[in-house]
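Sample entry (141 residues):
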Amino acid sequence: MSAPAFNDVRVGQQLPHLSVVLDRARLVRYAAASGDLNPIHYDEHTAREVGLPDVIAHGMLTMGAAVEAVSRWAGHGGRVVLYQTKFTAPVPVPRAQPAVIEVDGTVAKVDRETRQVTIDLTVTSGGSKVLGRPLVIVRLD
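Predicted structure, serialized as tokens:
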């Protein structure tokens, strides 16, 4: 997808919806790549022992999956100049079926002077918000 022209971006504009599927195999691959080998991300017994409903996705994996909606819309991830959020709920990944992270974005602000666009995201899984107040700023040409 090519980046939108800066002059065509408007407050209230919706980004294309993104669904990201997370299964147990993806969690294991992410753990190996990131070095985060905490067993709550791959061992059901450990996850339940610490009070979690099941194995959960890594917070940074969830955060990265969410910003992918903005990166695709902006043309590439290098356009992101700021990304911040709070983790509000874990993303359980049951053995029987993958979890799905749903991402919707809306242009909240367009700064003509800096050519930066502020995007508000809504990130849910299983009907619950999993990221709180996610905010992304991108610079467009």
